[in-house]
Amino acid sequence: MAAIIEQLVDLKTVKFQEVVGRLKAYEERTSLKTTNNSHDQLLLSYEGWDSRKKRENIFGRGLGNGQDTRVNPRSEKEVIHLSEKKVFPTKYESHDGGENMWYLNTGATNHMTGNKGLFSKLDTDIGGTNNIFSLGQAEEGGCVILIKHGFLYMFEVDGSLLMKVQRSPNRLYKINLDIGTPICLQVKIDDPAWLWHARLDHVNFDTIKRLGTNNLVDGVPVIDHPTQMFMHICADPYPLPPKLETGEAFEQFKKFKAIAENQYGRKIKVLRTDRGGEFTSNEFNQYCDYVGITRQLTAPYTPQQNGIIERRNRTVMSTTRSILKAMDMPQSFWAEAVCHSVYVLNRLPIKILKNQTPYKALKGRRPNIDHVRVFGCVGYVKVPPDQVKNLMTEVFL
User: Fold this and answer.
1) How far apart are CA 201 and CA 378, in angstroms?
2) Residue 56 lies in a domain
3) Which residue, 30, 62, 81, sits at the end of a domain?
4) Is residue 256 part of a domain?
5) Are 11 and 51 within one domain?
6) Structure-model confidence comparison of residues 384 and 153, the more confident one
7) Is 106 a member of any domain?
8) Do 93 and 47 sit in the same domain of this protein?
9) SS3 of the chain
10) pLDDT tens, residue by residue, 4-43
11) Does 297 map to a domain?
């Protein structure tokens, strides 16, 4: 009993009278079991306890050694909520909503249900008959819970309303919830939302919706699709591609510098890199000194000093692994997959640009991505008519 009280209340702020009341309630409940009295009472007050004891002329009986544990009468009525071993909401509810009825509970540590079909793995040692929706677990996931004027509101992180539940006559909050079934991408590829989800390297549906509604790009229809959370686990993750050699990194940097200056009129003033050998060669350093580029090198084993590029590289590689695994492509296509990932990511909005794509920020116009197709899909090349020979098909893979 002491362990239960310690879990239910804060020992630093709990009143002595409340602890005494809980102990008395426990004693009363155990004595009622032996006398076959009704044990349906869930609430007990100090006022009711004192009146019952006066009727039974039981005064001065303590919890041990005959000590008197009575407390002074209180001017206000204080209700003690008991912790029962098994409380089934449907026992106190007059209407049964079936297997889809869920009871919203602030005291449940996790979502619970008696429907075995909703589990991928089930521990049969734990029993239960009702569907319990843990508001604490929902709040931990980022949801906002508000109970006001007889209604329970649950909001998403972005402020959108997830549910509005009216309080039942017996003070329970219950709602009918239909459990969604997993969706296979290959089955739903004919749906425009899922088709563009695959074309844009499995970006979330909220971003796809923003592309059309906010006119961030051309060629994407306005898609209104409910937000869905899913996870794709790679059993054999693709390893990272090999790093560039010292001379190759230097040559690629010179090409990038020439394009940035000649095509877009942007000067490179500062270059921040790690201390890899491909960036610290004498040839690289001498070139940067010659063209007036300031070098910034991060401290060893401190990638957070260059966090923007490190995080972007992680996004590129995660996207690359995703599209390779989704289409079951061999690792030999990793270079093409990286190019495709960078091409798509440059045409998707990012937070720092405030509803703008990197492509538009650089070139000043919206990109057109109507030509983008699912990476790894079957492609055909048309043979020019003047090169078609006898019995030769005009297209080939």
Assistant:
1) 16
2) yes
3) 81
4) no
5) yes
6) 153
7) yes
8) no
9) CHHHHHHHCCCCCCCHHHHHHHHHHHHHHHHHHHCCCCCCCCEEEHHHHHHHHHHHCCCCCCCCCCCCCCCCCCCCCCEEECCCCCCCHHHHCCCCCHHHEEEEECCCCCCECCCHHHCCCCCCCCCCCCEEEEHHHHHHCCCEEEEECCEEEEECCCCCEEEEEEECCCCCEEEECCCCCCCCCCCCCCCHHHHHHHHCCCCCHHHHHHHHHCCCCECCCCCCCCCCCCCCCCCCCCCCCCCCCHHHHHHHHHHHHHHHHHHHCCCCCEEEECCCCCCCCHHHHHHHHHHCCEEEECCCCCHHHHHHHHHHHHHHHHHHHHHHHHCCCCHHHHHHHHHHHHHHHCCCCCHHHCCCCHHHHHHCCCCECCCCCCCCCCCCEECCHHHCCCCCCCEEC
10) 666 666 667 777 777 777 777 777 777 655 554 444 444 4
11) no
Domain match, 110 and 152 both: yes
The model's pLDDT over 50-95, given as tens digits with 9 standing for 90+, comes to 666 666 554 444 444 444 444 444 444 444 444 444 545 555 555 5
Q: What is the dihedral of CA 122, 123, 128, 131, to 10 degrees?
A: -30
Question: What is the count of structural domains for the chain?
Answer: 2
Domain identity same for 28 and 97: no
Same structural domain, 99 and 117:
yes
Q: Which of 20, 46, 81 is the last residue of a domain?
A: 81
Tokens 């219950």 belong to 174
Q: Look at the alpha carbons of 122, 127, 132, 135 in this order and tell me if their dihedral is positive or negative.
A: negative
Residue with tokens 């790894």: 376
Number of CB atoms found within 10 A of residue 197's CB: 23
For residue 312, give both structure tokens. 């972007």
Query: Residue 19 sits in which domain range?
Result: 2-81
